[in-house]
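New here. Invent one.

***
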Amino acid sequence: MNLNCYPLYPRRYVNSVIEHIYSELKVGDTGYVEKTITETDVYIYAGITGDFSWLHVNEMRAQCGHFKTRVVHGMLLAGLISNVVGNQMPGAGTIYEDQSLSFLKPCFINDTIRAQTEVIELMPRGRVRLRTTCVNQYNELLMDGEAIVIPPRQHVVDKPCWQENGK
């Protein structure tokens, strides 16, 4: 008996997760997420990573620092890019192979960030080069980079999760 985990969802869409396979991608394809970064986000990220630098969590000390207020962890923004890669473009089943990042401007608490990927090259052996960016609500480029990822070669989301007796 075949059991399909997601019988009610159309191909490629499961809980808002998109699955693009290598052969479906084109140069210029994009995906993005938008999120307002809250103080809670910063504290949760600090708790997960252990990075409790005053730069991120101590407003009094941060006022004496370079930016005169707390800033969001740069790698939290990188995590938003990972969200896009894994859920939008290319999407579910994509494997990260490489990522370069340049942090150009700070992100502040309560900034609204648009994290985006854009296909810039279809490479040999099923690899894809992406431009990865984060901009704030003023369209200022905060983070710029490139990633090499390996999207799935065939659809998996719409396949049965398991089959009994190998059938």
Q: What stands out?
A: The first strand starts at residue 2 and ends at 3.
